[in-house]
Amino acid sequence: MRQKRQKDNRSLRIYRRKTVALLFFALLVFISLLELIPVERNFSEKENRSLQTRPRLTLQSVASGTYMEQYEAFRSDQFLGRNLWGSLKTQMDLLTGKRESNGVYKGKDQYLLEKIARADQKKIEEDLGAMEEFKVRYEKIPMYFALVPNAANILEDKLPRFAVTEDQREIFGSISRKLWEGITWVDLSKPLGSHSTEEIYYRTDSHWTTLGAYYASRQLVETMGLDAEKTPEWEKHVVTNIFTGDLSLKSGYQSGYQESIYIYTAKKEKDMPQIVVDYGEGKISTLYDRTKLKERDAYDLFMGGSHGLTDIRTTADTTERLLLVKDSYANCLIPFLIPYYREIVVVDPEYYEGNLDEIMDEKKISSVLFLYNGNTFVQDDKLNGVLQSGKAEQISE
To answer: Comparing 143 with 38, which gets the higher pLDDT?
Structure first.
């Protein structure tokens, strides 16, 4: 009887092993068959980047080796259930104590903090050199340069233990020392650092909050010598309480965490000039696009997202005209600049295909402000292009 039971148990174990093996094999076959289904995505919202699509097979691409490189990237980017497997990996990493995913740290107090980007010295020198040449062409026009420190710089106490990232303070110091003396450096690290205990950065997004932009605007008013008497008394209004930002999507952390977005308006309506905003696709009278609150990136509420060229005309009692060359960080700061200028021409080099000479001459610009967040500027490869002189080209024509 005992031998019979042992034999039955062995048969049962063998049966279970075969069943598991068959199920695993069936799963592999199922996944392989699904992989043959031609479902491709061009863009990953989670990673905020373009994905490699199926490369075209040609003799030239095979001979050069580019086909296999592109095909390998294609298989990686278009892998079935890629986001699901990525989320599972993130959760497993958390269980093992890892606090970094896709360049984002899971910090203290629900903060997600983007790694400080490594400075590309060649690109920085090219941009600073182009800015100097631009200043020489318009030597009588005051120009200012401001870099916004990223959250991992100002809120370094929120970083997880043993987190290793670049020293952005040193990076900024190096840039300010290399900046040509004809362009005024605006130090935004001090005002933001003095308010580091306040909600000056989002917890789930890579941007600063409107409160952070407000403190920066006060420093800009002082350094740029703007008329402080034009500054209205501001009051804030919440426009959403269910914002989840790009760092949550990118990292997979805190997918259920929601926070607020505020806008600031003048307490007295008469203290805020009227505006007409031209994005090149019609004119509107607001700097906010509330329809963006229903989309993935609600930060695009400010200025309706990024545009190559935006012309903002105001009823401010002044003849001053500002050229603002910027990245997306400036979008929520622009409302704080409205009281001081008759016109603000906004250029985002990431999307603008022209050069700035035509704007300077046509718009009669009286001052220029370059404003970027640190991570964007130290990797920038667009600013240099829009700063190139178009005057020689005009003469040759």
So the answer is: 143
